[in-house]
Amino acid sequence: MNSPPSPSPTRWFKALRRTRTGEPCQKSGSSACLDVLKRARAAFRAGRMAPESFRLAQLEALERMLMEHESDFVDALDRDLRKPRFETVMSELMVVKNEALHAASSLKKWMQPQRMERSWATAFDDCMVVSEPLGVVLIVGNWTSPVQLCLVPLVGAIAAGNCVIICPSEVCSHTAELLHRLLPAYLDNECYHSVLAAGHEVPEIVDLKFDHVFFSGTREDGLKAAQAAARTLARTTLLLSGKNPCYVDRQCDINTTARRISWARFQNAGQSAVAPDYVLCHADTHECLVQALRCALQQFYGSEPPPTVLVDVVESDPIMQQDVFGPVLPILSVQSADEAVAFINSRENPLCVYVYSSNSKVISKIMAETCSGSFCSNDSALQSVMVGLPFGGVGASGLGSYHGRYSFDAFSHKKSCLLRSTCIECVTYLRYPPYEDRNLSLATLASSLSLRSQGWCSIL
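Predicted structure:
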């Protein structure tokens, strides 16, 4: 079947309305979620997902679903977000496929116990860390990347051996309904489920008691989900939005900088949690950057491009007080990298920090002196989709990380295991009652020696 052509970016920007017309998607809500939670819990207790072969089969089925229904996903995202086919395939489907392929090829290694190096105290013992699945995981997706933010964490949860319930964003109703329809046709019907729910129902769903909650969305909604998860002691991964700064140094390739910033800021009509939210531009290169951005936008979107670059912005302007999910890029002038660092550090920790410079000292300075979920120099957003790098927030921008092995670890319990021998009872008897001063003296001596000789005291 031939895929539909990618709509023109210009037409796409002119249709900035992002909600579907017509009837809203049918909600299933918390009552339906309770039913599938019981089924998933029963499947987990029965150990259906424990074998490596089962997990591999589910990962392969997920990849096959994306391949066989590429045109359906393209159509759904066009109807929900007016998203061009090129962006749907590149930023949604290919990202998930890469994660699934990487997990499938690495799963055997990830599932193996991690053996610790032996010391004198454990010469006759085995020390290891075993990765165990947590149980039933809830994944709450976000409308900015409705496929990627549901299915990338799903890959990690499957690889780790969990049962999963996904809750796609109701804003992207066509995409949510497509996932709701396709997942049961490809994945095990007892272990993996989807529910359709309104955003305000998410805390109520989280209250049903999951073993891990993966949430992507706004800080306000993330806080509500985290509070609900805390009531049941569920572990959480929070991927939250924020204002991502981008420093443009006076030493940089200005044309490449403008193209890469424009691409990252204005793809998906600016609706991205990882896009540069504002630019801190060195005063010496301010005019050159504005002109280069103008040229890049005309090259990308035609002679009358809807994206907007705001100049002469100051920190007190309203656009600097809220998250921006639209094709708007404010530019502020700074006199130095030091001023840029001070500006960034005066605000909440962002999800991403970007710097464009040909000076490695400037890059190192921004990286070392700011705190963010991720960092990228001379490009934007790519660090958020690489399977070998963890991605997540810090502080106000989130909690925990995922992608590749880090997803497997996020959805696993790391159980420490000590398999001891009984052949050294002639020494370990010192710890037993009745307690004697002589035995305490020997144990104290062993403790002092352990600081220099690999844990003598541990042998007791």
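Summary: The longest helix spans residues 85-111.
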